[in-house]
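Quick one:
INPUT:
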């Protein structure tokens, strides 16, 4: 672990980091009583996605679309060119993506899953495999809906919350080679690489790993497509942990990483600091033509992709802000601060702390609960009851069912995610969150499980309802 800096201040002696911004506008928070929260939770079927945000105190459901925009971004919103075609904001966005990520051709989409839908439909043929470094809910579903079969090729350590490897998002090249040997390169649609890996705890992929994957794929003519949703955060971990990158900027690292891939899709609602937006970026003209054609069917014209001109402008400015070293340093610094506090109280969390969230290890919280009693869903409910803090289940409920057998997928990781929105909460909020988690941990032995009362067909974690077991 010695090469994994957990305390940002350590690198600079006693000098701490601080947010590279000051607060200009505030939004009051709601404080509720336990009785009110009991009622709200039952009404929401013990699913934090079904709570009204007015009943939430600190909202750690997601870092998606929840960032605070800067004054420059808000000013950019006023410069929205709402022409149906050829809005100047599109060209600004195109330039920003080309400059920062380095890809040639850009297609905007309304958010990440819009981009996932288009690329999956464009390139996956019925019966092909899509190897990836752990599944993500919407990504895998779009790959399956396009006729593909997802195959997990992440290193084994990613499934172990206690493993301290610095790059737990890495792809196991032996697993990729074994799949090529078994099914043949033609049966592989592309390699789906996410940086960082959300479901593994926000764990990064190293530069050495993506380079080695590139070399392997070149041997067989296989494409690498990148889920760039939290790639800025991945670049930060490379800067901090990988030999040879300490003196490089986030911008340099990001561009080098992307250069080993053929295309990317993006949920701009995360790294790019906007409340809505997404994009696809590719280097191949033929694929671009196909995507540019598909986007008009499902999202909107290729110069707006389902977004308003003002949203495109906010995204263009957000991209430039998000690649700033001081921004990333303070963003991840806040996550590490919370992680260190919980670790110092021996609360079981995924280690090392990842980029966007703290992932509580619900199996270790509630060893008396079976996985089908939904320990991570229980933990999210208990945390809300204790303090009005909203988190998200990332375990068996999120994993869904095997489309062939209909049985639950049983992921090794049964986690509850405390996701930190960008530029929104202060260090004092982090202390309050840590103390609430401690209170729930102290009461863990008497906590009961849940059973499913209603289950929707797709992405069940969003809308499923639960009841308490006796
Ligand atoms: N991630 C998250 O909270 C939003 C909703 S939960 C499904 O973590 C990755 C790595 C994501 C992601 C969304 C998407 C989809 C793609 N890749 O939500 O459609 O973390 O913009 O992006 C969520 P959209």
């Amino acid at each position: 672990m010695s090469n994994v800096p957990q305390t940002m201040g350590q690198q600079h002696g006693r000098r701490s980091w601080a947010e590279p911004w000051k607060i200009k506008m505030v939004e009051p928070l709601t404080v509720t009583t336990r009785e009110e929260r009991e009622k709200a939770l039952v009404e929401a079927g013990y699913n934090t996605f079904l709570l009204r945000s007015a009943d939430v105190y600190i909202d750690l459901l997601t870092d998606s679309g929840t960032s605070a925009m800067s004054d420059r971004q808000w000013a950019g919103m006023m410069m929205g060119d709402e022409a149906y075609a050829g809005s100047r904001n599109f060209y600004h966005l195109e330039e920003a993506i080309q400059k920062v990520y380095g890809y040639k051709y850009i297609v905007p989409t309304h958010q990440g899953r819009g981009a996932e839908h288009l690329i999956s439909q464009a390139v996956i043929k019925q019966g092909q495999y899509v190897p990836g470094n752990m599944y993500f809910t919407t990504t895998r579903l779009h790959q399956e809906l396009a006729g593909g079969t997802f195959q997990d090729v992440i290193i084994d350590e990613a499934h172990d919350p206690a493993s301290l490897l610095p790059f737990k998002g890495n792809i196991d090249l032996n697993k990729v080679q074994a799949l090529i040997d078994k099914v043949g390169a033609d049966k592989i649609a592309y390699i789906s690489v996410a940086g960082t890996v959300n479901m593994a705890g926000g764990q990064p992929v190293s530069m050495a790993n993506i380079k080695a994957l590139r070399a392997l794929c070149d041997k067989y003519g296989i494409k690498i497509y990148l889920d760039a949703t939290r790639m800025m955060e991945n670049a930060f971990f490379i800067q901090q942990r990988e030999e040879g990158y300490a003196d490089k900027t986030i911008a340099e690292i990001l561009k080098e990483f992307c250069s080993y891939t053929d295309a990317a899709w993006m949920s701009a609602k995360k790294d790019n600091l906007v409340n809505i937006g997404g994009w696809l970026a590719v280097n191949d003209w033929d694929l671009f033509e196909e995507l540019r054609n598909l986007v008009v069917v499902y999202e909107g014209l290729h110069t707006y992709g389902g977004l308003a001109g003002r949203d495109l402008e906010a995204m263009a400015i957000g991209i430039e802000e998000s690649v700033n070293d001081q921004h990333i340093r303070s963003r991840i610094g806040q996550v590490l601060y919370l992680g260190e506090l919980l670790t110092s109280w021996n609360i079981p969390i995924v280690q090392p702390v990842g980029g966007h969230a703290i992932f509580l290890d619900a199996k270790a919280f509630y060893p008396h609960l079976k996985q089908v009693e939904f320990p991570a869903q229980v933990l999210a409910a208990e945390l809300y009851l204790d303090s009005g803090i909203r988190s998200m289940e990332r375990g068996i409920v999120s994993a869904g069912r095997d489309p062939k057998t209909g049985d639950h997928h049983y992921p090794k990781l049964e986690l509850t995610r405390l996701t930190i929105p960008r530029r929104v909460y202060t260090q004092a909020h982090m202390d309050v969150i840590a103390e609430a988690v401690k209170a729930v941990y102290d009461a863990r032995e008497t906590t009961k499980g849940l059973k499913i009362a209603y289950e929707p067909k797709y992405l069940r974690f969003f809308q499923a309802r639960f009841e308490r077991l006796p």
